[in-house]
Amino acid sequence: MKIVLLFVALASCQSNVSKGPYFGTGIKIGEVTQSEAIVWVRLTEAPSRVGNNAPMPSVKYKDPETGAMLERKGRPDITPVVNFPEGYNIKTIQGATPGKQGKARLKYKVKGVGEWKQTAWQSVNPKASFSTQFGLSNLSAGKEYELLVEASSLEGSKISASMEGGFTTAPAKNVAANVNFIVTTGTAYSDVDSDTGYKIYPSSLKLDPEFFVHTGDIVYYDDLGKTEDLARWHWERMYSYPNNIEFHRQVSSYFIKDDHDTWMNDAFPGMRTKFMGDFTYAQGTQIFLDEVPMGEKTYRTIRWGKDLQIWLPEGRDFRSKNTIPDGPDKTIWGKEQMEWFKRTVIESDATFKVVISPTPIVGPDRGTKKDNHANIGFQDEGEALRKFIGEQKNMVTVCGDRHWQYVSKDVNTEVLEFSCGPASDAHAGGWEQENFLPEHIYLNVVGGFLEGTVSRINGKPTLVFRHYNPDGNILNEYKIKE
């Protein structure tokens, strides 16, 4: 049995004997390969978040001519003004889980085998939301690992809090292993669908996934993220929910950023607006690296056994301005990333190749959008990318960003795309259910998540995608055979 099952009944262990630090936002395990992993740890002042009965700040926009304070309409290019409720501040508003200075160490071993290996104590970085990251190497392929993370004050040696966790390393590339994974997008705080966090986390945990991919829009800065501190608070309030903590301490993740968790809607480098106040694009890019486990580059490819390889592209840092005319030089991925993508795809001998993109590559998308490969904003690069993918054997695309589930097939290249849809029903929208186009194989304007499963059925490699609702009920299934 996997560590997921071993720990599912365990609450995260946090001592209340001392004054902290604690693990109020849990841990995140990421960037797992056959031999490596990164464990992200953050220390907090309290063992749990400020409750939902506490208020949140409000934002209005100052009219540059009259000085009147206006409610938001769209995303105005005028200066926001943040107001905290009387008696409240960044540490006491809803969901706040303030960080605390301290140190952490990590113990790990193959499940049920041998002695614990132990890292040295690492001090957290106050400039990185009081987090630190442990890089593990020389791991064994295809093994279940268990973890124990411990915290202490900088001055003392007493353990103030501990948390158990686990993950599975990727199987060797010559091993025909069963692998299943979960993909989601669109986890806006306002659309959380239970008091303990998003329901997709306990629902997908029951499927015993080897790994999880968040395709971006992990948090949404647009409404309230008008300063660097408020932007970091967005991560605190989301990842202090019990559902998030329980899931991420047991399942390894790959995180991709999109516009809303970089800066604002349809953001690109060099974009100018007063709408985000004192919070900048550069700060958003750095905060993402502070809040998730991440290696040297934000685009990467990972092999999971003989039958599966995934590609996780970077969709924001290298893009041209969305607003310039389309043409052969207009790009989302940039020249270096595109060359890397094509080279690594051609070099791969995996049975199934899956590119998991923060935005659509096939679509169809709305005619009003101009920021992804599925619409006219980047049509040249989109057509070239679909042509290349269509020329590969058993290569499909999975995407986030769109707030509806779908399976579609490009009419020209026959490339298949699976949109995971948003994490909750409250976040679903942007497409009409009756607008079933010739490209669609499946269409459902609902929330939930996508599961991909690679296995051998009667000796033949098979990739199956299943769409679920937030409660974990199957809505659609699509099989791809070699």
UniProtKB/TrEMBL annotation:
InterPro entries per record: Metallo-depent_PP-like, PhoD-like_MPP, PhoD-like_sf, Phospholipid_Metab_Enz
Segments forming domain PhoD-like phosphatase metallophosphatase: 182-429
Pfam families: PhoD
Signal peptide residues on this chain, from the entry's feature table: none
Regions annotated as coiled coil: none
Top-rank lineage group of the source organism: Bacteria
Protein's name in the database: Alkaline phosphatase D family protein
Organism the protein comes from: Arenibacter antarcticus
